[in-house]
Structure formats: C-alpha cells, structure tokens
UniProtKB/TrEMBL annotation, chain B:
Alphabetic keyword roster: Electron transport, Mitochondrion, Transport
Electron transfer flavoprotein alpha/beta-subunit N-terminal domain: residues covered: 26-218
Pfam family for this entry, one: ETF
Record-linked SMART domains: ETF
GO molecular function, one term: electron transfer activity
Protein name: Electron transfer flavoprotein subunit beta
Lineage of producing organism: Eukaryota, Metazoa, Spiralia, Lophotrochozoa, Mollusca
Organism: Magallana gigas
Biological process according to GO: amino acid catabolic process; fatty acid beta-oxidation using acyl-CoA dehydrogenase
Keyword set includes Endoplasmic reticulum: no
Quaternary context: Heterodimer of an alpha and a beta subunit. Heterodimer composed of ETFA and ETFB. Identified in a complex that contains ETFA, ETFB and ETFRF1. Interacts with ACADM.
Intracellular or extracellular location(s): Mitochondrion matrix
UniProt xrefs under InterPro entries: ET-Flavoprotein_bsu_CS (IPR000049), ETF_a/b_N (IPR014730), ETF_b (IPR012255), ETF_beta_N (IPR033948), Rossmann-like_a/b/a_fold (IPR014729)
Amino acid sequence: NSTLVIAEHNNQKLIPSTLNTITAASSLGEVTCLVAGTQCAQVAAEVAKVKGVKKVILADNEAYKGFLPEALTPLLLAAQKQFKFSHIVAPATAFGKNVAPRLAAKLDVSPISDIIGIKDKETFVRTIYAGNAIQTLKSKDDVKVITVRGTAFEAAEVEGGAGAVEDAPACDAKNDLSQFVGQELSKSDRPELTSAGTVISGGRGMKNGENFKLLYDLADKMGAAVGASRAAVDAGFVPNDMQVGQTGKIVAPDLYVAVGISGAIQHLAGMKDSKVIVAINKDPEAPIFQVADYGIVQDLFKAVPEMTDLVSKK
Amino acid sequence: MSGFRILVGCKRVIDYAVKVRVKPDKTGVVTEGVKHSMNPFDEIAVEEAVRMKEKKLASEIIAVSCGPQQCQETLRTALAMGVDRAIHVITEPKEYESMQPIHVSKILSKIATEEKADLVIVGKQAIDDDCNQTGQMTASLLDWPQATFASKIEKSNGDLSVMREIDGGLETIKVKVPAVLTSDLRLNEPRYATLPNIMKAKKKPLVTKKPSDYGVDITPRQEIVSVEDPPVRQAGQKVESVEELVTKLKEAGLV
C-alpha cells in the first residue's frame, strides 16, 4: 500500500491540517506528498522533513496559481497513473473538498468525505447529519479518495523525516476553464482557528460586531483564536471565516470558551470535541450548558472583562 | 439574448429542524414518519437560478431530484419557487439508501448534456450525508469548470465571476460557461413559495425517469457497516463566579 497526500499550502508554508492528514495517511501505507503550486520549492523541503513522509513530488507551474481543481486534477491523474497509490488523501478543508471529488470522478471512485477515524485500509468512520450520527463505511473501490478532518488526528511531527523530493510526472498543465482572480484573507495576529490551542467564540449574545473587542482582548491575553456562531455571522457581527459549526470550521482545541452562544446543534457539531468547554451565558437554560465542563450563568458584558483581568493576573 | 439554461439539483432530506434518531439496529437513521424538506443548500441553488431568470440572465430552469416517489413533493416546491419544469429520477427506497453522490453526479451530467444546460447549480452539500461532492463530481464528468461554495455570482463578459467562501476568507475566480456552481449559505435568502405559485406549480411539467434511462449503474460503491449515536458529552458543573472559573482553569493548566 502507498498513500498520496495532497499537501495544502500557500506556496510559502504548509497549512497545519496537512500535518494531521499525514498522520491519518501514515496508518494506510507509505506516504508520498504532492506539493503543487507556484514557486513552492520551499514547501516541498518543509514537507520532506515531516516525520513519516517518504517521498515528495513537486509540481511547480504558473498553471497551479490559486490551486484550481481544473489545473490540479490532470496532475493528480498523471501521478496516480505512474505510482498507482492505494489511497489518495487530502485535508477536509475548502481546498481538499474542492479537489478530491473532482479527482475521484475521473478515477470513477466514490470519495469518502471528512473522515474522523480509520478502522482498516478500507473501513472509515465519519459523521453524518451534522454530527448527530456516526457512520462506519467500507469502500469497495480499488482506489480510496479521502478527505480527513484535521481535528480527529494528531499533527505529524515537523522534524524527523527524510523524504526524497522529485519532480512530478509530466502532464498538460494548461487550464483555460477557470482563472484565479484574487483573495481577501482576514488578517489576524491571533492563531489560526482550526489549529489553536484555545478558542473563544461569540454568539448572538454579543449584540454587535464592536463588542467582539471584549473577546479579542481576552484572546490576546490567552493566546487564543476567536470564532463565532452562525447566528453571529448571519447577523453580520463578524466575517464568515470565523464561523465555528457544521457549515463553518470544525475545531477541537484544549479549551473552548463559548460566550453568549446558546448552543444550536449545528454549532455543537463544530466544537464538541474540544477537550474542555466553558460556557458563559445569562440564560441558565441554554443548551450549551449541557456540553460545558464549566458553565457560568452571568451577563457576558460583566464576566468577560472580569475574566480578562483575572487571566492576566499571574 | 437567449440566456442560460440552468439545471438545479434538489435533494429531499430530513428537515433541518428534526432531531434525527439512529435506528436501534444501527443500519441508519429513522426516516419513516419524519418531516422531509428540500436540502437547504439546494433551496439556495434554486433561488439563485430563479433570480438569474428574473434578471433575464436565464431562459429556462430545470430541477432534478433523484430518489423515491416523495421526491416529487420536493420538485413541486422548486416549481413553486419559479423553476419551469422538473425531472424526477425515481429509485426504489431500498436502492436510494445506498445511492451516493457519484451516482447522482453521473445522472446530473447526463441530463445536463441532454438538455444542453449552460449551468448546473447544486447546494454545496446535503445536510444528511454531509458529503460535499456532487457539484465537483458533476463538473469533473462534464469537463466543465467548478465554482464551489459560491457566495456571489456575477456575469462578466461571457464568463462568470464567482466569489467563494474559503477557510481564510473569500476568493474570487472566473469560470467559463458552461460551468457547475455550488451554493454556500450566504449566496442568497431563498423565498417562500406563495399559495398561488404552489397552485400554479401543480400544472408545471414533471417527468419521471429511471437511472437506467441515462445508462447509470447505481450499484453501491460503499457498504454501510454501522450508524451509531455519537458519544454523549456529560455536562459538567456550574461555577458561581468568574474568579472560581479562572482558578479552575489555572489548576488545569489551561490559562
């Protein structure tokens, strides 16, 4: 068995969930990583050092600008033709979810999305109905195309590997179907949501976007990332990329602090695997308290500043 | 100008507000006697198509649903929202249980070709299996570009400019037409079908086909080993003050 990991990166460095994907892939077979992008040789060098990576295939071409699936799929097909992988895995991110099914359709296999567990080389565990049921399935396809939920697997160690970097097999890299125009990425000095050790999220109870400053202040004291419930995003308090939940980001930090969040099912689906959950809500009946390790029934506008004060006091 | 011919996918799923229950024999979830509706992301896809028609960007909208007899109710909802005609690809309920996005995308791609569609719009994922695959696979089978997780779609010259929701924020891509689009939550807010439109929808054409009419083999590619309840998280304790909370977090080494 040999497994191909489609590495996600920004041409400068790896996106953290690739490391969790490598851990999942290592239990399926010898790991090869594909790094495709523009001027991304340093990413290939970074991946080669990750523990468990045996080989890195580097594909550097202007056509891979924006990591568009129309350009990447022919490359992946050429790699599959040459190396005959038994499994092809990608992180279950916007990137992985975009590329993996396009590849799977070309290989005529039924992809397996967002796995949270591996029983054996053909049996996988995933959630359905927004995390309200856990499905175990056995794939009958020759090649398994899989996306991996990062929070369900440990990150691979970034040192200790000695993978050999080689050039990708030749393929037609032309893409005239789609074109990358640009990105508006939210800028933040705080840690990235899905890999942060502590996440503080605000909900409808925050009342408006300005009040999120209370959470940013606390987050900066704690080295935490800041997220939001769908209600807070839909109300326009904060941008969509902060959304934690089934239709947003799935997080599983050591500490999750839910502030003014009632705890709708779809929000719980995105955070209930956190190790310790704290809920701050003035409504004692809020469903969030049913999953919280520590709940405090208080007005968040009083509790959060007090917490910021106490946390900084060493 | 003739406008786009648009195909929209409409999956019938357990209503989003229903608390799903796992069957005691662990073969799936209870669907009998449970309220079903159109997949919310597909409603957004239908709404987007209808708005394109209202803006004269589209000439005709065809809705497709694959599954048992009751899918016709889902298609009638789409027709009441403004879709022109519908195709129901009927399967036995038993067959439908093992039907996957790979089967549906093969059917959609055949219909798109047959109907000479310019755009296929589907929800980014269905809220039952949470696969997030059908749009991407349909695009792949057709060799069309895909603009997934769309939050804004605009026509620019002959192409489409699409704003997509990605992990770090938003991105814009351009795709050639024909193309496949998948809708994200913020693309639009779907309308409710009005009573007069629900009445009118009953007279709109709805044809029934079988997967075999499109030469699609729906043999299962995956075997469901089990469906179980997720582990239950125990509620912890209420703490009386922020001070007590912070003390406990400090003890646990979390702050």
